Amino acid sequence: MKQDIFTQVGKRTPFRTPEWFFEQQEQTLKKAISSQKSVVRPLHRKWWYAVAACALLLIAIYPVMQLVHSSSDSLAPVPDTAPVYSQTSTASDDWSDFAEADVFLDNMNW
Q1: What pLDDT is attached to residue 45?
Q2: What number is the average pLDDT over the span 56-71?
Q3: How far apart are CA 104 and CA 100, in angstroms?
């Protein structure tokens, strides 16, 4: 009778790490890090790039805002008693209006 492999193994895994593996890796990484020399890079160059990018953004946005402002000034002010529009027709009325205005339906031989 053949027995299921999973019942034989249970929850054990067949993979194992060698003894002292993680401790050895820790020591190796510490040696590698301590042998590297750190380089100090000044940040002032990055600040200049950020300032230049902000200036270009403001230069690009200013004319657009002036254009929007001038076009909104040229529009006539809307009175407080502006009419309120509502839809009173039905969909069938819209389709019948559309069909009556269609020149191609007039030429059809129905």
Answers
A1: 79
A2: 86
A3: 10
Count of Cβ atoms closer than 10 Å to residue 43 Cβ:
8
C-alpha 61: how far from chain center: 22
pLDDT (0 to 100) of residue 53: 93
CA dihedral 75, 80, 81, 84 (to 10 degrees): 70
Return the pLDDT at 47: 83
CA distance 53 to 104: 58
- Distance between CA atoms of residues 64 and 70, nearest Å: 10
- The sign of the dihedral angle between the CA atoms of 92, 95, 101, 103 is negative
Whether the CB-CB separation of 99 and 105 falls below 8 Å is answered with: yes
Instruction: In the chain, count H helices and then E strands.
Output: 5, 0
Which residues fall within 8 angstroms of residue 105, CB to CB, at 6 or more apart?
99
pTM over 0.70: no
